[in-house]
Amino acid sequence: MEKPCTLLVHFDKGTPAMANEIKEALEGSDVAAKVDAMKRAIMLLLNGETLPQLFITIVRYVLPSEDHTVQKLLLIYLEIIDKTDARGRVLPEMILICQNLLNNLQHANEYIRGVTLRFLCRISEPEILEPLIPSVLTNLEHRHPFIRRNALLAISSIYRLPNGEQLLPDAPELVEKALGSEQDASARRNAFLMLCNCSQDRAVAYLLSNADRVPEWPDLLQMAVVDLIRKVCRANRPDKGRHIKIIISLLNSPSTAVVYECAGALVSLSSAPTAVRAAANTYCQLLSSQSDNNVRLIILDRLNELRKSHREVMSEVVMDVLRALSSPNPDVRRKVLDIVLDLVSTKNVDEVVLFLKKEVVKTQAAGESDKDAGGEYRQMLVQAIHACTIKFPEVAGSVVHVLMDFLGDSNVASAIDVVIFVREIIETNPKLRVSMIQRLIDTFYQIRAARVCSCALWILGEYSLSLSEVEAAISTIKQCLGELPFYSATEDAEPTTDSTKQPHAVSSATTSSRRPVVLADGTYATQSAASETAGVAPSVLPGSLSSIPNLRSLILSGDFFLAAVVASTLTKLVLRLEEVQPAQAETNKACSAALLVMVSMLQFGQSGFAPHPIDDDSYDRIVLCVRLLCNTGDEVRKVWLESCRQSFAKMLAEKQFRETEELRAKAQISHAQPDDLIDFYHLKSRKGMSQLELEDEVHDDLKRATGEFTKDADDASRLNRILQLTGFSDPVYAEAYVTVHHYDIVLDVTIINRTKETLQNLCLELATMGDLKLVDRPQNYTLAPESSRQIKANIKVSSTETGVIFGNIVYETSNVMERNVVVLNDIHIDIMDYISPATCADVTFRNMWAEFEWENKVAVSTVIQDEKEFLEHIIKSTNMKCLTPPSALEGDCGFLAANLYAKSVFGEDALVNISVEKQADGKLSGYIRIRSKTQGIALSLGDKITLKQKGGDH
Amino acid sequence: MVVLAASVLTKTGKVLVSRQFVNMPRIRIEGLLAAFPKLVGTGKQHTYVETENVRYVYQPIEALYIILVTNKQSNILEDLDTLRLLAKVVPEYAPSLDEEGISEMAFEIIFAFDECLSLGNKENLTVAQVRQYCEMESHEEKLHKLVLQSKMNEAKDVMKRKATEIEKSKIEKGKFQTSGYSSISGPRRSDSGFSDINISSGGSGFGSGSGFGLNADSIDSFSSKSKDRPAASAKAPPKGLGMQLGKKTQKTNQFLESLKAEGEVIIEDVQPSAVQSKSVLPPTDPITVTIEERLNIIVERNGGLRNFDLQGTLSLQILNQDDGFIQLQIENRDMPGLSFKTHPNINKDLFNSQQVLGLKDPNRPFPTGQNDVGLMKWRIQKMDESSLPLTVNCWPSVSGNDTYVNIEYEASDLFDLQNVVISVPLPALRDPPTVNQIDGEWRYDARNSSLEWSILLIDHSNRSGSMEFVVPPADASAFFPISIKFAASSTYSDVKVGSINSLKGGNVPKFSQRVQLITDSYQVV
């Protein structure tokens, strides 16, 4: 273990303090100058200087000072200096400070005593502590609580030193005695903690003998009690009941911190449903009583943990958890919904959905005040309800109508969620179809967003089956389109533009006509949705266009994709009408009306009045619809009326399949390991066995947090990372293995003297490029002939970036006084060590994509011929995750687009989009775009991809 | 439930101050703090971030973040409380809440952090309390300083008084020498000064300078207390007296030095226990003369005298003032190296010529009361081994699994010794040692792990004796140092009061004398 670091102070290198200046100031009698000099000395020490000459000055001139600040600074100074030599023995001069410490421990000022006692806690050299122990013990009886508190702390930490029992053989008795007579809360806590750590039996005995009074104890002490119980119950379980009783009594403590801790302890003590229930209830109470978001979020985390291990119990408190939705914080709400959704079961689904429904209605009422937050929240709720209904389709009926009111919501995202929800329900719940269609027709005119419109149109087209429905649908659409034509003939003033555009449109239509994918609107729409909504929504000006029917305003603003959807919907409806309408005349009338609409849309698109001319795809599609209506055939009819719906059903089925697959994968994980213990239900219940693991977890948690806990990779893999730094014929041979931890890089450098001479002042000088920083200053070594030495260098990393470490070895030989230099091979730090695959939702990906400033565009240049193979290759070489679902990548269409995502250990996001197309000659072309918030990632990842994309050879 | 570190960072991520409460290497804490700014998102309504291993709870204040780094199991409610406290404390100390402000007061902030979190455990404090703790204003210290100051003043006063007195006595002495005879004024004043000096010099052995208005009783309790303490703490100055004491003793020393220079008899190394052992029997005779010789002897275990020091005193106790006008006729054996010193108020010429102890001013009585008044001191040094009253030989020998220890004593013919106790230290034993043979009695003191061999009286019938005991094997050096105590009713110098003359004429009051030779310390090392 490295030397612990107790404090950090920002050190401004602009004002270098010279050691002799400090020395002078220390020797002077001016207290203020002395304080200042001490501060500077400490800062220098923290900055890596050693200042050995200063020690004696300090002993001579600072030790006797009576000023309190000087004394305190002195303690800090003593805290950070090296008190041992290289072999771990205490330096002889340290004895000089003992007398001063002793005086401080007997000082008339209680604070000096206290601070000194606290300082002793940080000392681990028994040689220094030994002479002080009697004084520490006498301070235990001092009448000032400040001293007693710290004396107890000091005793505790001395006793816990490796040889502490020998230094303070009777410490537990003394502390127990002190605890019995102590009044000060903090001192009692310290005493109790000392017993917990050093003599658990005594602590337990004390606790049990005072069990009745525990609820009256101060909260600090109660915390310690809970901690002890958690520890003790791991070892001896027979009297667990008594401990649990204490915990239960503490659940009513006025201090919320204690209550929170108790709940945690309960879970770790027992996995019996009663205990878990009590804990869950306590958490829920805290959840509602605490208004701090931090607390709520963390409590929700705890509940979430409970959910994983004790589902049954948690599903009982679902409603209590749900109440936390009243918090205005979106993070809290999201977490609540996450927990609740997972716990929904047949028993509580009605209640939950009812509650959610109420919440939705509430947002409508209160939504005016803060539209943004309300809309976001509504979207969350809609998604939650959606998820519930997927699991339990029977509840859909009760909510879907309420939700359909929100189709016209001004928050596009939540409206989209609603419409997607409706689309899914109408397919999976045939019973609800009739009423839903009716409702949709009624509310259609309210829909403002193009995406929602197109989806709603699709629903109308697919699911209007009966004669009345079809007719109503057609008339609604017509109404929404308003009077035809879209522009009056007098406005058509510029026929020239029209004629020039025509040939162009035709030619591009032919080139793009080989894309069959345009037809399916589901998957394709989700791909291009971001640009769609982003591009169109702002151009809808609700104020100026509100009087105009919605479809008309959208189309007039230039949304020809919507026009195409309208055309195909009308086509579908007319085709259906032909089937259900007995009167041929009516059908023909409808058909001609539809044709008129399509033609006028085309005309508008090619006139100069649209903001931009109609795009080829939409044009193509509308023309196709026109052709179809003019010339129908059975084959086409079947495609339009059945296949479309079938493929939708297939998509839903696939989605469901994927979900169950994921669920199964999750379930797989929690299955027993081959070497797990097998529980024989009839022999012994394992209820309550978990605390052992849990306790270890607590322990490890602290260790991990302080960085003590590092998993040692096996040596074999370590050897793979050896880097040769100098040549074999150099006088000094050096090689290093590079270990990359999270925030730091450790270089283990082996240096071998290959000459027959002694190398003096040998120094490994390293320099870094990129966001790397050397922690230690290089030191000089002397290397005997043909001997070797290990040098460790720590390098701090503060962001994900490819870094380079370069350097040289400098040394002197005995006869020549000049310095020799051997330049080292560069060490490249790989960005791949810092990023790991991660997932995020499509929406967040798109938001980040739009938001991030740095983009690095890499042209594809590879020998790989197959798009998918190329994608695999990139994924493998960049260690990222592909967000695009595999189904979207299926098929052999000659082009491919996929999104990759990864996160760095520093929490930075790395986004990659790959778009490749197969050229006629079989080569792949296209671009890989990398976006990130910081330049480092974009550049480094780009370099990495450029380097690796070639592929093929390995 | 422990906070790992409390830190103050700028919004840009520069670490200004960080105090760690748990042992962690520097690279770790720097890494944690460097990662923090990247983890803090914007637009969040909560102020904590969790990573794989740690949790940061933070609070933005102007251009700064105040951060607590905790483990993930930490109690968030407590941590938030602590953070709130810190957020109140930091502005108290920093003149401005930015980089300069914090850097300027970095150490003060660290001190405050230390108070808010004692080794990572939460303390229930208010800002005012933290401030109070950091200011370190101590009522007790002030009191202590006041006491010291007053003591110092008092000492100065005494010194002045002494100085003038000595001046005066010098002048008077000069007068006396020139004019032959003259009266001494103010007997009472000289009396009080007399006893003062004795006691103050005794007290100074403790370095406490407590020679002011203390009576013998308090010194008694004082010294016994210090004896009861464990050895380590005895080294230290007694409780309640701070480090200023060095100066104090120095002052007292100076004071004493100056007195000495002016011809005052001051024996600085008078043992405090001398005071203790004086309280023997309340005297019944109107005049009691106590003659006492104290021995300090160190003998090498294989023969040879390392140190021999004998100090004798003659003191007088007079119950009634009427009996105070007397002179004492002294008798003594003539010995080499024996020299007497008399109290300054004693007429030296008279003593030198006739061996009569009398006051310079014959019109003054000797001080009266229950206290002994020292009149004369003497010393004997450089004696040889043969003149020791008692010699002890100790022969440990290992045989098989036991160590046999043979001890024998030999007493000189000169003295009859009473209450002889020879204590032999033993190695740590489980059971008392087996004593095979003994002249006298033995006792095993388990606490001090020593064997005490006591002989009530050594006279011509038993000038030598021996004992043998058996203990488990031990190194020979374990049985040393042997310490010996005894008392005798005759002295080396054989000082005696032959007779008492009354100056006022009339009946010579009845007097008794107690003659004693006792050991202060007698060790065989």
From TrEMBL, chain A:
<feature type="domain" description="Coatomer beta subunit appendage platform">
    <location>
        <begin position="818"/>
        <end position="945"/>
    </location>
</feature>
<dbReference type="GO" id="GO:0006891">
    <property type="term" value="P:intra-Golgi vesicle-mediated transport"/>
</dbReference>
<keyword id="KW-0677">Repeat</keyword>
<dbReference type="Pfam" id="PF07718">
    <property type="entry name" value="Coatamer_beta_C"/>
</dbReference>
<dbReference type="InterPro" id="IPR011710">
    <property type="entry name" value="Coatomer_bsu_C"/>
</dbReference>
<protein>
    <recommendedName>
        <fullName>Coatomer subunit beta</fullName>
    </recommendedName>
</protein>
<dbReference type="Pfam" id="PF01602">
    <property type="entry name" value="Adaptin_N"/>
</dbReference>
<comment type="function">
    <text>The coatomer is a cytosolic protein complex that binds to dilysine motifs and reversibly associates with Golgi non-clathrin-coated vesicles, which further mediate biosynthetic protein transport from the ER, via the Golgi up to the trans Golgi network. Coatomer complex is required for budding from Golgi membranes, and is essential for the retrograde Golgi-to-ER transport of dilysine-tagged proteins.</text>
</comment>
<dbReference type="Pfam" id="PF14806">
    <property type="entry name" value="Coatomer_b_Cpla"/>
</dbReference>
<dbReference type="InterPro" id="IPR029446">
    <property type="entry name" value="COPB1_appendage_platform_dom"/>
</dbReference>
<feature type="compositionally biased region" description="Polar residues">
    <location>
        <begin position="496"/>
        <end position="513"/>
    </location>
</feature>
<keyword id="KW-0963">Cytoplasm</keyword>
<dbReference type="GO" id="GO:0006888">
    <property type="term" value="P:endoplasmic reticulum to Golgi vesicle-mediated transport"/>
</dbReference>
<dbReference type="GO" id="GO:0000139">
    <property type="term" value="C:Golgi membrane"/>
</dbReference>
<keyword id="KW-0813">Transport</keyword>
<comment type="subunit">
    <text>Oligomeric complex that consists of at least the alpha, beta, beta', gamma, delta, epsilon and zeta subunits.</text>
</comment>
<dbReference type="GO" id="GO:0030126">
    <property type="term" value="C:COPI vesicle coat"/>
</dbReference>
<feature type="region of interest" description="Disordered">
    <location>
        <begin position="492"/>
        <end position="513"/>
    </location>
</feature>
<dbReference type="InterPro" id="IPR011989">
    <property type="entry name" value="ARM-like"/>
</dbReference>
<dbReference type="InterPro" id="IPR016024">
    <property type="entry name" value="ARM-type_fold"/>
</dbReference>
<dbReference type="InterPro" id="IPR016460">
    <property type="entry name" value="COPB1"/>
</dbReference>
<feature type="domain" description="Coatomer beta subunit C-terminal">
    <location>
        <begin position="674"/>
        <end position="812"/>
    </location>
</feature>
From TrEMBL, chain B:
<dbReference type="InterPro" id="IPR011012">
    <property type="entry name" value="Longin-like_dom_sf"/>
</dbReference>
<keyword id="KW-0963">Cytoplasm</keyword>
<keyword id="KW-0968">Cytoplasmic vesicle</keyword>
<feature type="region of interest" description="Disordered">
    <location>
        <begin position="177"/>
        <end position="196"/>
    </location>
</feature>
<keyword id="KW-0472">Membrane</keyword>
<dbReference type="GO" id="GO:0051645">
    <property type="term" value="P:Golgi localization"/>
</dbReference>
<feature type="domain" description="MHD">
    <location>
        <begin position="284"/>
        <end position="525"/>
    </location>
</feature>
<dbReference type="InterPro" id="IPR027059">
    <property type="entry name" value="Coatomer_dsu"/>
</dbReference>
<keyword id="KW-0931">ER-Golgi transport</keyword>
<dbReference type="InterPro" id="IPR036168">
    <property type="entry name" value="AP2_Mu_C_sf"/>
</dbReference>
<keyword id="KW-0813">Transport</keyword>
<keyword id="KW-0333">Golgi apparatus</keyword>
<comment type="function">
    <text>The coatomer is a cytosolic protein complex that binds to dilysine motifs and reversibly associates with Golgi non-clathrin-coated vesicles, which further mediate biosynthetic protein transport from the ER, via the Golgi up to the trans Golgi network. Coatomer complex is required for budding from Golgi membranes, and is essential for the retrograde Golgi-to-ER transport of dilysine-tagged proteins.</text>
</comment>
<comment type="similarity">
    <text>Belongs to the adaptor complexes medium subunit family. Delta-COP subfamily.</text>
</comment>
<dbReference type="GO" id="GO:0030126">
    <property type="term" value="C:COPI vesicle coat"/>
</dbReference>
<protein>
    <recommendedName>
        <fullName>Coatomer subunit delta</fullName>
    </recommendedName>
</protein>
<dbReference type="InterPro" id="IPR028565">
    <property type="entry name" value="MHD"/>
</dbReference>
<dbReference type="GO" id="GO:0015031">
    <property type="term" value="P:protein transport"/>
</dbReference>
<comment type="subunit">
    <text>Oligomeric complex that consists of at least the alpha, beta, beta', gamma, delta, epsilon and zeta subunits.</text>
</comment>
<dbReference type="GO" id="GO:0000139">
    <property type="term" value="C:Golgi membrane"/>
</dbReference>
<dbReference type="GO" id="GO:0006888">
    <property type="term" value="P:endoplasmic reticulum to Golgi vesicle-mediated transport"/>
</dbReference>
<dbReference type="Pfam" id="PF00928">
    <property type="entry name" value="Adap_comp_sub"/>
</dbReference>
